[in-house]
Specification:
Radius of gyration: 38 Å
Shape: elongated
Oligomer: single chain
Helix content: 25-40%
CATH topology of the largest domain: Rossmann fold
Number of strands: 16
CATH class of the largest domain: Alpha Beta
Number of helices: 13
Structural class: alpha/beta
CATH superfamily of the largest domain: von Willebrand factor, type A domain
Number of domains: 3
Low-confidence stretches: 82-87
Strand order of the largest sheet: 5-4-6-7
Length: about 400
Amino acid sequence: MLSFGFLSVVAPWALVGMVSLPLIWWLLKLRPPVPRRILFPPLELLRRLVPERESPARIPPWLLILRLLMAAAFVAAVAHPLLNAETRLFGSGPMYVIVDDDWAAAHRWPERKAALDELIDQAQRSGRSVALVRTAPPPKGASAQPVQLMAAADARALVDNMQPRPWPAQRQAAIERMLEWASAGEQRPGDVIWLSSGIEAAETAEAATMEGLTRRLRRLGSVSVMAEPAGRLPVVLRPPENAGNALVVRAERPAAEAAALGRRLHALECELVAATGPADGALALLTSLQARGARLGILTRNARDIALDTLRHCALDAFFDPAHVIGRDEAAPKPSPAGILRLLEAWGARADDAVMLGDFRFDLEAGRAAGVATVSVDPSGAHPWRALADRCVDSLSELCAG
């Protein structure tokens, strides 16, 4: 294979035909005039002794150029040109392919198989053998496929029958098998391609992380890791937790994606602070509660710094100790009762002595789960979660009146 930047040709010898183009030009220019059919009768022959028209002795330039282009196109077609046939592979030895085929790879499996097919096509064009390892273990009772070098056609047949497996991958064990096989057979260096799902448990030991395993794979040659971009990674659903009268299922995004979304959410919350104002009757109620010696706290699903900024913007920050403002990062978010229980512990108070005020279902569910009294605040008067509230008010001013 011969490459010219992004263009490659499978049969470079065919390009020798381009050298013949000047000869074709010369031959076409020497083409004799096209024979003409003339009737024999003598009178007609005498009449045409002086011809009124003559056949051209040369081919018109446009026809000559057209025929040369046709010849050049034929030569190029025989050379079998390919666009972007050579990508990230630089070695000349075998191609070692590691495939994450666990549950995390299932959501975009057709795209992953297409990437595998492209890699195998490159190996076939380069005449390179392929060794393929799957990181998801086989079903119980079955043995893992032995690691071996195979022709590209055999690797393609293996990939065609490959399907993701609905359990976690065991990357370290799979890569250990490949490294042991390579050491035993003294395999020569090549290209290592890892089609990763992009998911890694936070508690993974250093030696089993993708970074640690990638360092070890460099014994086999240059390592390229192909993974989904952050926006396409799957979401992890944790086992449900019992939160009193509800089951809470936590959905977790990968760290990189979660961090990006967290920054975006924080920016939106900062914009909303300027548009926030105190609820009707809030100042009077807080003043009354502070005069009675009540302990006040805030439990929010927003970030803690956003809650503090909102209090300052509404001129209500003097009523709250910053230590008693709990955001989504300080305790499990509502409807979990963790934040309420933390405040009760900090105050040394019992659940019977506390009240949870809220305007949404999660507020009332958290209060019920913590065993405290609940008050629903809804200016519209609809109170859709009335069953979760011990008292319903349309305005905080109603609580000031007792």
